[in-house]
Design the sequence.
């Protein structure tokens, strides 16, 4: 810092943890740092990754920006945080905190050291503000232009401008790295960053889209160092623009709710936590944003009430998602005892379809073996099925899952009369044919993933999958639905790769080695130091622990059967591989043949035959429509004579609602009536109601039947000149007619 960067060492302060004599002695005795500028702090100088796990003291370096920014007293003075700014830290992970809170020494210690780039630039530039650094200062200028707000105008404006600058850079790089806004994992972080930026711009009165131009400015600043941003600018902008446009629609309502709630809270008081929860749950307002806006009004947020609402929501979610196969209660305790005793299940199913094993435990309707060829459901691949045999008995395994990490649970069919004794030797055999189908589908997901990235771009990343014996599902990040041409191109590329019949290699290596070979690892998976790498053909390299074919040709053809949206910027493909596309083709052929028989033409003439039938049907409909009009006109002549003072309310017989509608319009238009209300019960099921009034006249069709519909158990019909509605209660027709007659001042028997 002093020799290379030229920072004035006399303006640097050091902090150490209150327990860390070793760190202070190194600073003072070996580095030669003055002890009067070394301060001991407690929680601020102890790093933890969570309630349990690695932790340890830390030592931090602060720069003194001068008395004009605050009182003296060093970093230990809370009132001087603007004057003494942290610019470097060193963390010493040397302990492990157990569940009981006790600390034990880690077998290997380390030093995690790092400096903030913007903070160093700020020091070198003579400013205490991170936003005076080159990149952020330019983005702050862009934010001022985009929002028509200047620094120094207000506290809210200063916060918003700096936040827009910082968040623009973050969202630009995240989207550039292939992350898309979603409600899970990295996508959720990105969504919150984008929404936070939008919320602050909205508070400045900005209602137009501004993030695309902010992103363009960011790329302009960063493109020399990161040329890939410029090459991908259109996609980055469009992804963020869509998210901004959608969120601004809900933001208006949410902001109004927040402003209204804050107006009723006295300064110094707390905003109801249930309001903050509603903003979070319904409008996507992060709690910290609500807190920031409340703080600007001198109001806090009741975090305890917010947390209570969140806890109740989680409980509701748990109650609504009771899935089968979840280990709980007494079974969970039994499985935990097994693990504590050192019991594990070795998976040998990559090498063997059938093995002799020892029964470690029988818990409920589950069998635990010391070794098994059965693959336990994981990574989207379903569990194996098969049999466990011993001493002339056989039980059927209907599913396989992990009871706990390292312990595989074989689910036995409920109607099995015998379960193997604990300690006995059994023969565990999988359903080989089913496993083969699953392996084809699983390897197919990897080829499909590669093909998607080739067709749509490197932003496509796997977001989940399901692999069964008869089909597979693949979820991926993308911002719009796929066209037919895109789907065909994806299928063609995947199938061409399969036809090349490249080898499929499934090897075990270190994570570092795997990533060095270009292996893809996505959607928040947790990997240990040792991982399995699947190299499928010459293009696809991914981390995967499932079971696979040994050559691409074994997959057979891939056919996409559906492509849908399952969430914002998340798409889902359902597809078939192996014999699945053949079965689909046969099913389609049978369907086409049946349709051709119904139409009465050979299969080769089916399209022409269907078109001819459609034309005939259309002509018949037009004829029917004309006949209905003629019938309505004829019937109207008979009914018009029953009108009183140009108003008619009655029950009619009709085949459907359209017939009632045509009759009402004919009476109004051709008989010169001021108001017509007709009711019918086509086929004795339900009620069709139509009201027609003279356009521009004093009567409103929808108002005439509004109360009557309540008597009929229905609704609808809000037009001024023509209102159609439906009800469920034919028995209420007489009462409904009487209600309308009363509104029109007609005799009850008219």
Sequence:
């Amino acid at each position: 810092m002093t020799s290379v960067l030229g920072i004035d060492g006399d303006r640097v302060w050091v902090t150490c943890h209150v327990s860390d004599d070793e760190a202070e002695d190194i600073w003072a005795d070996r580095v030669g740092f003055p002890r009067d500028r070394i301060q001991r702090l407690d929680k601020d100088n102890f790093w933890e990754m969570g309630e349990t796990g690695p932790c340890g003291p830390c030592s931090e370096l602060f720069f003194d920006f001068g008395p004009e920014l605050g009182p003296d007293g060093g970093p230990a003075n809370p009132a001087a945080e603007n004057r003494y700014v942290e610019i470097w830290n060193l963390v010493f992970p040397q302990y492990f905190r157990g569940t009981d809170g006790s600390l034990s020494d880690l077998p290997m210690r380390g030093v995690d050291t790092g400096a903030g780039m913007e903070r160093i630039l700020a020091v070198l530039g003579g400013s205490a503000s991170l936003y005076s650094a080159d990149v952020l200062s330019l983005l702050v200028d862009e934010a001022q232009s985009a929002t028509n707000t200047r620094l120094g105008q207000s506290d809210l404006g200063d916060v918003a401008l700096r936040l827009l600058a910082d968040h623009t850079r973050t969202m630009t790089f995240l989207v550039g790295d292939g992350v898309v806004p979603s409600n899970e994992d990295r996508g959720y972080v990105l969504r919150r960053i984008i929404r936070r930026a939008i919320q602050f711009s909205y508070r400045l009165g900005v209602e137009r889209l501004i993030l695309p131009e902010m992103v363009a400015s960011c790329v302009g600043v960063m493109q020399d160092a990161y040329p890939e941003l410029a090459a991908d600018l259109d996609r980055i902008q469009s992804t963020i623009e869509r998210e901004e446009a959608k969120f601004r629609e809900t933001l208006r309502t949410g902001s109004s709710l927040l402003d209204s709630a804050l107006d009723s809270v006295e300064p110094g008081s707390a905003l109801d936590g249930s309001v903050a929860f509603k903003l979070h749950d319904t409008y996507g307002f992060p709690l910290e944003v609500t807190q920031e806006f409340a703080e600007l009004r001198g109001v806090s947020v009741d975090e305890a009430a917010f947390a209570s609402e969140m806890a109740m929501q989680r409980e509701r979610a748990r109650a609504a998602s009771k899935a089968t196969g979840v280990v709980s209660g007494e079974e969970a305790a039994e499985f935990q005892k097994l693990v504590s005793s050192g019991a594990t299940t070795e998976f040998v199913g990559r090498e063997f379809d059938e093995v002799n094993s020892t029964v470690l435990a029988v818990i409920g309707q589950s069998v635990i073996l010391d070794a098994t060829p059965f693959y336990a459901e994981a990574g989207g691949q379903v569990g194996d099925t098969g049999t466990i045999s011993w001493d002339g008995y056989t039980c059927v395994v209907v599913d396989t899952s992990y009871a706990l990490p390292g312990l595989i649970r074989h689910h036995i069919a409920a109607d099995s009369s015998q379960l193997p004794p604990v300690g006995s030797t059994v023969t565990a055999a999988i359903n080989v044919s089913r496993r083969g189908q699953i392996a084809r589908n699983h390897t197919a997901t990897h080829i499909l993933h590669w093909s998607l990235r080739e067709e749509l771009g490197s932003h496509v990343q796997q977001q989940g999958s399901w692999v069964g014996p008869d089909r597979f599902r693949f979820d991926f990040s993308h911002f719009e639905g796929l066209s037919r041409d895109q789907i065909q191109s994806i299928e063609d590329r995947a199938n061409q790769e399969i036809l090349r019949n490249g080898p499929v290699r499934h090897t075990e290596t270190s994570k570092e080695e795997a990533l060095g070979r270009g292996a893809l690892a996505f959607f928040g998976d947790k990997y240990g130091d040792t991982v399995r790498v699947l190299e499928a053909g010459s293009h696809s390299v991914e981390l995967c622990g499932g079971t696979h074919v040994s050559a691409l040709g074994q997959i057979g053809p891939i056919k996409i059967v559906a492509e849908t949206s399952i969430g914002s910027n998340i798409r889902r493909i359902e597809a078939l591989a192996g014999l699945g596309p053949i079965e689909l083709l046969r099913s389609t052929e049978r369907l086409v043949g049946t349709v051709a028989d119904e139409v009465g033409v050979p299969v080769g003439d089916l399209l022409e035959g269907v078109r001819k039938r459609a034309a005939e049907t259309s002509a018949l409909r037009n004829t029917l429509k004309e006949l209905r009009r003629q019938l309505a006109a004829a019937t109207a002549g008979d009914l018009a004579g029953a009108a009183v003072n140009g108003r008619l309310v009655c029950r009619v017989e009709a085949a459907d609602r359209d017939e009632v509608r045509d009759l009402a319009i004919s009476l109004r238009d051709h008989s010169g009536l001021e108001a017509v209300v007709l009711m019918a019960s086509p086929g004795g099921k339900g009620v069709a109601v139509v009201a027609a009034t003279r356009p521009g006249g004093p009567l409103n069709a929808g108002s005439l039947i509004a109360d009557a519909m309540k008597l009929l158990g229905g609704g609808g019909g809000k037009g001024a000149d023509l209102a159609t509605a439906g009800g469920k209660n034919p028995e209420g027709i007489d009462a409904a007619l009487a209600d309308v007659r009363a509104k029109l001042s007609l005799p009850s028997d008219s």
